[in-house]
C-alpha cells in the first residue's frame, strides 16, 4: 500500500498535511478512487459513495464495543460527485473498528430507506469485525476492520488448466471436517480442510469448489425443530462480499484477517489443486421489507436492489430480495470484488449461484447481452479465471445452453444431470439426451473456438454433474425414491420433487445384500459415466465413500450429522473409494475423453456412438444400451488413445460387439461395474483382459474398454 501511496503522491503532488480537525481528529480529503478503508503511512483512507444520501458520518469503535468513541462527519468539501473520501491521520488499525451512518430521505414507496441513526457496514469492507461462536447471534450491529495485507504469495504462476482438464470436488468447509470421525485438529475450519489435503491428493481431484466462504450470518431465520436448532448452514446469505467468514478460522484471526484461507489456498495450489469459490451475487442477507438494514439498504436501497414500482423487493432469488446486478454501481462492486479475490486470494475460479439473475435488467427482465456478464468475460485481470454459471434462477428463468456470453462462461449442465440420472435408472426416453450429454453436449454448446482465450467453447462450457450440495448425495440417489426432509420443519414440502432417483428395491437403510449390491453398482455406474463424459466432471464431497444425508435433499439448515461428512464410511466403503480413485486416474490418463485430438491413426473417428452390433448409430428415444467411443492421436505418448464406454441401463444382460480397430490392436477391458468372480471392478493395464469381438454386458452395468496395440506388436516395435 505504501507503493500505491507513493505513486499517488507522484501523480497528485499535494501536501499530505492535515487540513482540518474534526472531533479531535486531524483529517484531509482522501483518495476518491480507492473504495473501502485502506491503511496509509500517515493514517487511514475511508471512501464510500451514496447516490441518494445527503450526508455521511464515519463511526469509530473500540474493538468489541457497540457505542462509537468517535463520530466524524464528512465535510461537503470532502465529496466529489457521490463519493465521500477522507484521510484520518494517526489511526492504528489494530485499535478500532468502523462503520457509517448516512442521512437522506426515508420514502419506502420510492425505495428510499435512509436513516441517520442506522449503523451501516462498509460494502467494501475487507473484514467484518467481531469473532463469535458459530450459531450464536452476533453483536447488534456490523462493524468493519481495516486489513493489512502482508501475505507473501511468492512467484507461483497462475494455473493454465483448461476447464475440461479439471475434476471438481464440491464441498462445504464446515461440513467437510466437522464430524468427529474426520480426525482433524480443527474440525469445521479452513485449517481442518488443510489437514485433509493429502486425502484430496490421493483421491486425485484437481479442483475444489468451496460453498460460500464470504462473511454470512448462519443465525438468520434460526429456529427450533424437534429439539434441534436449524441454521442457514450453507451460507447463501451474504453479509459482506469482500470479507472471508471469520467463523471458518480456527484461531483468532485478529490482525490477520483471511490469513488461514490464504494459507489453505496456497497449500492447495502447491498440491496441484485449484480453488473455485461459490459466490452469491443474486441476493443478500438483508432480505425483503421485513429484513434488517445494515448495509446496502441504508446506502442506496433503490440502486442495489431490483424494486417494484411501489418500492417492494422483486424476489427472483427466492430469498427475499434480488441484487440489481446490471446497474453500473453494482457492476462496479461485483467486478472489484472478483478482482480482489483473484489478486489477494489467488482464487482460480468462481461459480455464480443463480447466475441468470446476473442477466436481468433493472426492471427484472432478462437481457440479450447483459453488460455485467460481458465485462466479467473480457476483464483483463479475470482473463484466465474460470467463470461458471448456475444458469437458472428461482423465478423460472432457465438458460442452460443459452446463458449469455457462453463462449467465455461455463455452465452447470442441468440437462446432463437430469438426462443421465434418468437413463441410468431405466428412463429410456432419456437416452437421446443422455447420449448428447455424455458426448459433450454439442447440441447445447456447439464447438465454437473462442479467440479471446484460445479455447474451444463446446466441451469447456459444460460442467457435468449428477450430484451437488442441492439435492441427494450419490448414495441417497440410489437409496430413496422420494425426499425425506421432515427434519427441516416444513412438513417435507421443501426441496425438489424431481430427483430421478431409485431406491433399488427398499426405501432407505437396509441389510438386504441384493439391494445393497445393486445400489453400489449404480453408484459405480454413475461415477464411470461421469468420468467418461466430455466436459468438466464435478461431484459432491463424500460421494466417493457413500456419504448419506438420510434422504434429505435440501439440507441447507442442517448443521449436524445430516450434512457433516461421516468419515467412518471411508473405511466401511474403501472399495468404492478405490473405484473413484481409479476412474479419476483413468480420465486423466486418456485425453481423448477430455478434448479433441488429432485423428487416430487406426481410422476410428474422434467421437461416435455405436449400437450393440458395433455400428454407428443415432440414439433413439427408446434405446436401452449404447456405446460411445473417444478416439484421437495422443502426441505426448505418440500413440492412439482409444476409449470405448458401453452403458447397459436394461435389467437383462446383452451381448455387444466392439468395433474393429485393426489387426495390430485390440480392445482391453478396463472397467466392468458388475465385477468379476473375485469382486474386481477395475483393472490396471497389467490386469486388463483382451476382448475379442464381443462382450456380454450384465444387467444395469457400465463397461469401459481401452484400445491399444497387442503385446506381441509392441514387443516387435
Automatic annotation (TrEMBL):
GO terms for molecular function: hydrolase activity, hydrolyzing O-glycosyl compounds. One of its GO terms (biological process) is carbohydrate metabolic process. Residues 170-587 form the Glycosyl hydrolase family 13 catalytic domain. Pfam families: Alpha-amylase, CBM_48. PANTHER family: GLYCOGEN DEBRANCHING ENZYME. Belongs to the glycosyl hydrolase 13 family. This is Glycogen operon protein GlgX homolog. It comes from Anaerostipes butyraticus.
Amino acid at each position: 500500500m505504501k507503493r500505491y501511496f507513493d505513486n499517488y503522491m507522484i501523480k497528485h503532488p499535494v501536501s499530505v498535511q492535515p487540513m482540518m480537525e474534526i472531533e479531535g481528529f486531524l483529517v484531509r480529503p482522501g483518495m476518491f478512487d480507492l473504495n473501502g478503508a485502506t491503511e496509509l503511512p500517515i493514517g487511514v483512507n475511508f471512501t464510500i459513495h451514496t447516490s441518494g444520501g445527503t450526508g455521511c458520518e464515519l463511526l469509530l469503535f473500540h474493538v468489541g464495543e457497540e457505542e462509537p468513541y468517535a463520530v466524524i462527519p464528512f465535510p461537503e468539501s470532502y465529496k466529489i460527485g457521490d463519493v465521500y473520501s477522507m484521510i484520518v491521520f494517526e489511526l492504528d488499525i489494530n485499535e478500532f473498528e468502523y462503520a457509517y451512518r448516512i442521512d437522506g430521505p426515508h420514502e419506502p414507496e420510492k425505495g428510499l430507506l435512509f436513516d441517520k441513526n442506522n449503523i451501516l457496514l462498509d460494502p467494501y469492507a475487507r473484514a467484518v469485525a467481531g469473532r463469535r461462536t458459530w450459531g450464536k447471534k452476533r453483536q447488534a450491529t456490523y462493524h468493519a476492520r481495516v486489513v493489512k495485507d502482508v501475505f507473501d504469495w511468492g512467484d507461483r504462476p497462475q494455473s493454465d488448466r483448461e476447464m475440461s482438464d479439471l475434476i471438481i470436488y464440491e464441498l462445504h468447509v464446515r461440513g467437510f471436517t466437522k464430524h468427529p470421525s474426520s480426525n482433524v485438529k480443527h474440525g469445521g475450519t479452513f485449517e481442518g480442510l488443510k489437514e485433509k489435503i493429502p486425502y484430496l491428493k490421493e483421491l486425485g481431484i484437481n479442483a475444489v469448489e468451496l460453498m460460500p466462504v464470504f462473511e454470512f450470518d448462519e443465525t438468520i431465520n434460526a429456529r427450533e425443530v424437534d429439539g434441534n436448532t436449524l441454521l442457514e448452514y450453507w451460507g447463501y446469505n451474504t453479509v459482506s462480499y469482500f470479507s472471508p467468514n471469520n467463523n471458518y478460522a480456527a484461531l483468532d484471526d485478529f490482525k490477520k484477517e483471511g490469513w488461514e484461507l490464504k494459507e489453505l489456498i496456497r497449500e492447495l495450489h502447491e498440491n496441484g489443486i485449484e480453488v473455485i469459490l461459490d459466490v452469491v451475487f443474486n441476493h443478500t442477507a438483508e432480505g425483503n421489507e421485513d429484513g434488517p438494514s445494515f448495509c446496502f439498504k441504508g446506502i442506496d436501497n433503490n440502486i442495489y436492489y431490483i424494486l417494484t414500482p411501489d418500492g417492494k423487493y422483486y424476489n427472483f432469488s427466492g430469498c427475499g430480495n434480488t441484487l440489481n446486478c446490471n446497474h453500473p454501481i453494482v457492476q462496479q462492486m461485483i467486478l472489484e470484488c472478483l478482482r480482489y479475490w483473484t489478486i489477494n486470494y489467488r482464487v482460480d475460479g468462481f461459480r455464480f449461484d443463480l447466475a441468470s439473475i446476473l442477466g436481468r435488467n433493472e426492471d427484472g427482465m432478462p437481457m440479450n447481452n447483459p453488460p455485467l456478464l460481458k465485462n466479467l468475460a473480457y476483464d483483463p485481470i479475470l482473463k484466465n479465471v474460470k467463470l461458471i454459471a448456475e444458469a437458472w434462477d428461482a423465478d423460472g428463468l432457465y438458460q442452460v445452453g443459452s446463458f449469455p456470453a457462453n463462449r467465455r462462461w461455463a455452465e452447470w449442465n442441468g440437462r446432463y444431470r437430469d438426462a443421465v440420472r434418468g437413463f441410468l435408472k431405466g428412463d429410456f426416453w432419456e437416452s437421446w439426451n443422455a447420449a448428447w450429454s455424455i458426448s459433450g453436449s454439442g447440441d447445447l454448446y456447439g464447438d465454437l473456438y473462442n479467440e479471446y482465450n484460445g479455447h474451444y467453447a463446446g466441451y469447456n462450457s459444460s460442467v457435468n454433474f449428477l450430484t451437488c450440495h442441492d439435492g441427494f448425495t450419490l448414495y441417497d440417489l440410489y437409496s430413496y425414491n422420494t425426499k425425506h426432509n421432515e427434519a427441516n420443519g416444513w412438513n417435507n414440502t421443501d426441496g425438489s420433487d424431481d430427483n430421478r432417483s431409485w431406491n433399488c428395491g427398499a426405501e432407505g437403510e437396509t441389510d438386504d445384500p441384493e439391494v445393497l449390491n445393486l445400489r453400489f453398482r449404480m453408484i459405480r455406474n454413475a461415477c464411470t459415466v461421469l468420468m467418461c463424459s466430455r466436459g468438466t466432471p464435478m461431484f459432491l464431497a463424500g460421494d466417493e465413500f457413500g456419504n448419506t444425508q438420510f434422504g434429505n435433499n435440501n439440507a441447507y439448515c442442517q448443521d449436524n450429522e445430516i450434512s457433516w461428512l461421516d468419515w467412518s464410511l471411508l473405511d466401511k466403503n474403501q472399495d468404492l473409494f478405490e473405484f473413484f480413485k481409479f476412474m479419476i486416474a483413468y480420465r486423466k490418463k486418456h485425453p481423448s475423453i477430455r478434448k479433441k485430438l488429432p485423428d487416430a491413426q487406426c481410422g476410428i473417428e474422434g467421437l461416435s456412438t455405436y449400437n450393440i452390433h458395433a455400428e454407428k448409430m443415432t440414439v433413439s428415444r427408446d434405446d436401452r444400451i449404447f456405446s460411445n467411443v473417444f478416439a484421437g492421436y495422443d502426441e505426448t505418448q505418440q500413440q492412439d488413445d482409444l476409449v470405448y464406454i458401453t452403458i447397459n441401463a436394461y435389467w437383462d444382460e446383452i451381448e455387444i460387439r466392439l468395433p474393429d480397430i485393426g489387426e495390430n490392436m485390440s480392445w482391453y477391458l478396463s472397467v466392468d461395474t458388475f465385477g468379476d468372480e473375485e469382486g474386481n471392478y477395475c483393472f490396471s493395464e497389467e490386469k486388463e483382459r483382451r476382448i475379442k469381438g464381443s462382450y456380454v454386458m450384465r444387467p444395469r452395468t457400465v463397461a469401459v474398454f481401452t484400445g491399444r496395440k497387442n503385446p506381441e506388436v509392441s514387443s516387435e516395435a
